[in-house]
Amino acid sequence: ALPLVKEDQLTGFLLVGAKRSGDPYFSEDLDLLSTLASQAAIAVTNAQLYAEVVLVNEYVENILKTMESGVVAVSVEGKVTLFNSAAERMAGLEAASLRTGPVERLPGALADLIQATLGDGVPRLQVERTLASADRRVTPVVCSTSPFSDAQGRILGAVLVFSDLTRLKELEDERRRAARLASFQSLASGIAHEIKNPLVAIRAFAQLLPRKFGDEDFRENFSRVAVREIDRINDLVERLRTLSTPSKPLQPLDLRGPIEETLELLRVRLEDRRISVERVYDEQLPGTLGEPSQLKQLFLNLFLNALEAMEPGGTLTIRLKGRGNGEAGLLVEVVDTGCGIPEGLPEKVFDAFFSTKPQGTGLGLAICRGIADVHRATIRVENNPAGRGAVISLAFPAAVEMPAEVRG
Ligand SMILES: Nc1ncnc2c1ncn2[C@@H]1O[C@H](COP(=O)(O)OP(=O)(O)OP(=O)(O)O)[C@@H](O)[C@H]1O
Ligand SMILES: [Mg+2]
């Protein structure tokens, strides 16, 4: 019997019987047998290791298969090495068509992120993206990437993990609807109040009319007040209509279009008040989805507020830039050099009928918020931390990116 030894560990025995010739074992035979035994020991260990690797592989594959999150791995050469079933489901793509293919075959939203990490070795965390599959299904996802490297620290590839945000977005929509419903009540009471006042004035005059018909002054007064008050109601109704118009479908657009058209509308007023307009636009701007006439309405309300807040000679600055922090999307800032938002009011200014102006209806920003909602944009007001005036910022989500197949 010969021991099979691997790294001082006994892994088995090699048992040999008597020679068929009946000869004894000579020392050359023993040398041969011990060489054989040491080779056999290596082979046995390798077989054991192989079985272990297969097991571990199966284990990892099972985990990847049952995971709710999508997992994508790309080698440093830019080849897709892993695309699990959750990733298939969310992206509407088959792993078989991607595996060992170039990273560019991944949906654009994922390819960019993973390439960025491959490029600089820096992880990207919790980045929101939108996946569109060939059948036009749109899935919002949140992605994180991380590089992986060998013991010497050389980058071997990068892995991207992403999860479906659909349910979360639905909850967000539900919350918005609930908030809208809640504001409906205060809106209704505001409307009632706004219509009641002019009606009271008109009624008082109408009651006096039979008695005072002969009074020239009275007739003139009546005509003036009635027209003014009716105009007020008419104005209110007009603005309320924009609050309630069902939105038309959003289309891909360049926000500079509606911004310029709105500025053109206001050109005379801006010149009269010697307000200069500064445009600070990033060279590379992500696309957005929008409805042009609603966006014009939104910018009109914001620019009018800025105009009303400024003394002659002020500056209206419009900034357009990417959202940053690895987030796709567009940020618009409307900055003025006016009086600023009154202390402690930032949230109130969005309430319908909240106004600090004698002639204001207080519907401007309420309408803006409604339009922003339709565009899934968030709107915030704050005072300029770097000086005078207010900053209204709008964060638009990125336009949906088409998967590689659709992009062609
Ligand atoms: N750029 C700004 N600078 C300072 N205050 C602002 C600015 N924009 C809005 N506000 C404040 O928010 C309030 C609400 O604005 P909103 O546009 O909703 O109504 P309004 O301008 O008062 O009335 P309307 O828009 O109907 O003429 C304003 O009355 C003002 O106090
Ligand atoms: Mg306004």
List the helices and strands and how they pair.
Elements: E1 2-6, E2 9-14, H1 27-66, E3 70-75, E4 80-83, H2 85-91, H3 95-98, H4 108-120, E5 124-132, E6 138-149, E7 155-164, H5 166-212, H6 216-244, E8 251-253, H7 256-265, H8 267-272, E9 276-281, E10 288-290, H9 292-309, E11 315-324, E12 327-335, H10 364-374, E13 378-383, E14 390-396, H11 404-407
Parallel strand pairs: 9-11
Antiparallel strand pairs: 1-2, 3-4, 3-7, 5-6, 6-7, 8-10, 11-12, 12-14, 13-14
Structural class from helices and strands?
alpha+beta
Give the CATH superfamily of the largest domain: Histidine kinase-like ATPase, C-terminal domain
Helical residues, percent: 40-55%
* SSE string: EEHEEHHHEEEHHEHHEEHEEHEEH
Spatial order of the strands forming the largest sheet: 4-3-7-6-5
User: Domains counted in the coordinates: how many?
Assistant: 4
**Main sheet summary:** 5 strands, antiparallel
Number of DSSP-assigned strands: 14
Q: So what's the overall shape?
A: elongated
SS summary, helix count: 11
Strand-residue proportion: 15-25%
CATH architecture of the largest domain: 2-Layer Sandwich
Mean pLDDT, to the nearest integer, reads 88
- Parts with pLDDT < 50 across at least 5 consecutive residues: 401-408
CATH names the topology of the largest domain as Heat Shock Protein 90
The hetero compounds bound to this protein are: adenosine-5'-triphosphate, magnesium ion
Describe the structure using short key phrases.
408 residues; elongated; 24% strand; disordered C terminus; binds magnesium ion; alpha+beta; 5-stranded mixed sheet; Beta-Lactamase; single chain; Helix Hairpins; 46% helix; 14 strands; binds adenosine-5'-triphosphate
